[in-house]
Amino acid sequence: MISYSTPEYKIEDGISIINNTPLKIFGDHNLQNLNAAMLVCKELGVKENNFYKQIKSFSGASNRLELITQTNNSAIYKDFAHSPSKLKATINAVKSQFQNRQLVACMELHTFSSLNAKFLQQYSGCMDESDIAIVFFSKEEILHKGLTPITEEQIKSSFNKENLLVFSDCEKLKIHLQSINLENKNLLMMSSGNFNKLDLNEI
Fold it and tell me: Which residue in 104, 94, 106, 170 sits closest to 135, CA to CA?
């Protein structure tokens, strides 16, 4: 059994650097996985410097802080995060990586548990670090899953986030996201679903 943890790293201009190697991935979870992969490769006889030489081109797993597009001062990411703890960790990762940018965090309530009125309370405070917080849910999805309907008021109360925006209409969400000036901002889209087939490339 070999234990692993978050390796020592530094952040320069939004880029994580380990062993003088600039990476395309970031966030504690990704860096912990990288450390684990390095230790496995080391056991297989791969030299550490060769590992880092190759890993610098790795852009990460699909839907895990996946970069959709970027400019010099903004970026759009998508992530599979949907549980309260994962939302908090992913938001923290992006805020820590880009401390000079505001964060627009948008998540979709999609799973059976997240669309349950009793479970909603678990989301309290999980989006506090975002500068603009948005929650989307589909009323049709609730009916499809045979769940008791929830309201925008219940969601706002449960998340306990000042100025939280709640949308249940995908088209209105799309229009709102497109209206946001992303200058010096990052947009983080989080869901285990697809925001009712919202095309992030259009955003």
Answer: 106
